[in-house]
Structures are given as C-alpha cells and as structure tokens.
Write a structure and sequence with these properties.
The chain is α+β, with helices and mostly antiparallel strands and 383 residues long. Helix content is 34%, strand content 11%. The longest helix is centred in the last third of the chain and has 20 residues. The chain is globular, with a radius of gyration of 22 Å.
Length: 383
C-alpha cells in the first residue's frame, strides 16, 4: 500500500511539473473532479506516445486533441457493421459523362455537399454517410430546388435490424442497409421534419422508430405540404468493385476517381487512427490496414487533389467541424488509404422531372462541376 501511494505521489508531481499537460488543460479548457486528474494524465501520456509513433510513419498529421485524455468509449463514435456473410450484389457505377480527368475536384464548394454534421456518441456513421450521399445525388440530379438536408435520424432509428440488410441503430450498420430501407419506405425526410436526437437513437431501433414511422407515413399523405421535401431512392451502385474480404490492396482507385468526377461518394474506412488527426495528408502507413475486416467507420469522399506535393483524397467526416480540417481529412491518393475504396457506394434517387426541369438541372450540374474544379475550390486544398 505504501508503494502504491508513493507511485500516486510521483504521478501527481509529474503532472504538476509537466508544462505540456498544463498547457493542454488550458487549450482545451479541461477541469477534473477530485482524484480524476492522475488517470487523465496517464491517458494523456499514452496519447503522446501514440501520436509520436504515428507521426514517425509520415508527415506530422497527428497531434493533441480534446480526446487526448479520453478513454476509448469517450472518443468520437464509429459504427460500421455488416451482417455476417453479406455478399455485395449491386452493380458498378456507370459514368453518365465522358471522362474529363480534372487535376482536382472538390464538391464541398458546391450545393452538392451540405455542412458538416455531428453524430455524437452514437454509432450512426453509416446513416450519416448514406444520408450525405443521398443529399448529394438529390442536388446533382434535381438542381437547386432539391438541395436540402435530410434526416440521418430516420435511417438510424427505422432501418430494420434483421434480414440480409439488417442494421442496429447506434450499435452500428452499413450504407447498403440504409439504402435498402429508404428504397422500401415512403422516402427519407428532411432534417427539420425529423431532427437528429442522439438520446432517442440510443434506445433500441424498434422503439425509437415508432414515433418516426407515423411522421414518415404522413410525408405523402393529405398533409404532405406541411412536412417539406424528402428523397426517394431506387437503388445504389458501387463506385468501384467492392472488396468484402482479404487485404483489399488492389482496389481500382481509377474508377473511384472517375466516379468522383460526377458525384461525392459514400465510403467506409479503417478510422482507427483518426481521433488523433489534426491536419495534413495522412499516409497509408499511418492509417494502417486497408483490409475489409478492419473497417469501422463510414464517411464521404468529396473529391481529390493530384497537384499537391502528396496527392490526396478529400474526405468529409461526421464528427463535427471542430475535428480535423473543419470536419474533413485528407488521405494519400496513391494507395487505398484506410481502405476507402473497399465499400464505396452511390445511391440512385428517383425524381419525376419535367423536360424543362431536367434541362435546368443538367445546366445546374454543369455549373457545380465547374465550381468544384475551377472556382473557389483552389482555396480549399491548402493542407
């Protein structure tokens, strides 16, 4: 007991004299309950060692964040999970336009990408990723009038937990399951009609869907004009042939780049090192395994930049705008970094446009492409 007490005394003396720790508490406005600081300091020192090791594998893209004193269960949530034995069966995406091969593209600068979201401590990344991809297709295929924010809450709570496409709410799911759910219901509501409530989705999916199901049913009922816009999905395709087992080291990255010429793409990744990311281009070595069974998180690729010293993919996360580079991360483009091409999907939205509306939407889509490749995108590539 005396030996243990001596260790605690030494640890307390260390944290009091550690200038980096004291500055960390100031920078992130940390305060601790009585007796808690020693534990948090131990986690902090482990984070420092991990960050140093990761940075030794490439450029210094990792650093101290608000999670550096947090236990694993207190950090940003993930949540990618597929039913055992799932076999991909959707077709591969077919480009609608000729290959243009832009040096860089970033759909973030257009109406095709909505602002960064925050999934909180719910493993609903898969719902956010699918929702973001549907939002992008809705804006690209329908034009300005269809640029709306949709409801990941609905997908998280109401996607069935059984069957070939079963998902489990805050406990995880996958984008293919999300698309299948939306395909089989009235549609995906806007986020004002069904707002995100982390406390609600922490309950079982079946229980949390009951109040939402009534609202979904009303979306095309007699009071439809009061519910606002929503999206319908007819299916989905893979941006590049998926890899559902093995090392996935030979994914067709050119097909992924070709798909990104036309649209943002939902992707799933190994995000094991992402909590420490602070900016710059994360190398494949720093990210770790690209194998299918290492994937744990779903996000969205919004573009790429081949003109940077280290070319990179541009990826949007759902961990709030205070994470990474205003909510984004840059991944080394020459590799299947983090396994981003293992499970890359594009939903197909169903729209009933008149010939005039379709013509306006096509013109709007071309305008957005030029914005993404030549307009304000240039300032978005600073790393």
């Amino acid at each position: 007991m005396k030996f243990a007490a001596a260790l605690v005394t030494v640890a307390f003396a260390d944290l009091q004299s550690d200038a980096t720790w004291q500055q960390y508490k100031l920078d992130f406005m940390k305060s601790y309950a009585s007796g808690e600081e020693e534990e948090r300091y131990t986690v902090f020192k482990e984070s420092q060692a991990r960050i140093a090791k990761l940075n030794s594998l490439g450029d210094a893209v990792f650093g101290l964040t608000w999670t550096s004193d947090r236990r694993p269960e207190e950090k940003h949530a993930k949540g990618y999970k597929k039913p055992e034995g799932f076999v991909p069966s959707a077709p591969t995406f077919v480009k609608q336009t000729e290959r243009r091969n832009p040096a860089s593209i970033n759909w973030r600068t257009t109406d095709a990408v909505t602002p960064i979201k925050n999934q909180g401590q719910c493993g609903s990344c898969w719902a956010f990723s699918a929702t973001s991809a549907i939002e992008s297709q809705l804006a690209l295929q329908g034009g300005d009038a269809y640029s709306i924010e949709l409801a990941p809450q609905q997908i998280t709570s109401c996607t069935p937990s059984t069957g070939d496409y079963g998902c489990d709410g805050c406990n995880g799911g996958f984008t293919e399951g999300a698309y299948e759910y939306v395909k089989g219901t009235v549609g995906l509501a806007n986020s004002f009609y069904i707002p995100y409530e982390q406390s609600l989705v922490e309950t079982s999916a079946t229980a949390s869907c009951k109040p939402i199901a009534k609202k979904v049913k009303a979306m095309n009922g007699t009071d439809a004009m009061l519910t606002g816009g929503y999206a319908t999905v007819s299916g989905y395709s893979y941006a590049t042939p998926p890899c559902s087992s093995g090392a996935c080291a030979s994914q067709d990255l050119d097909k992924l780049a070709a798909a990104l010429e036309e649209t943002p793409v939902s992707i799933c990744v190994n995000a094991g090192a992402w909590n420490d990311y602070t900016g710059g281009v994360m190398s494949s070595a720093q990210c770790g395994s690209m194998a299918a069974d290492m994937q744990d998180h779903c996000v969205m690729a919004t573009g790429f930049n081949t003109t940077a010293p280290t070319p990179y993919w541009i990826v949007r996360n759902s961990w709030s705008s205070t994470w990474g580079v205003e909510g984004y991360i840059y991944l080394e483009m020459s590799e299947n970094t983090c396994g981003l091409a293992d499970d890359a999907t594009i939903p197909a939205v169903a729209l009933d446009l008149t010939e005039e509306q379709a013509s306006r939407a096509a013109a709007n889509r071309e305008r957005m492409y030029h914005e993404a490749t030549f307009g304000s995108a240039a300032t978005a590539f600073t790393v």
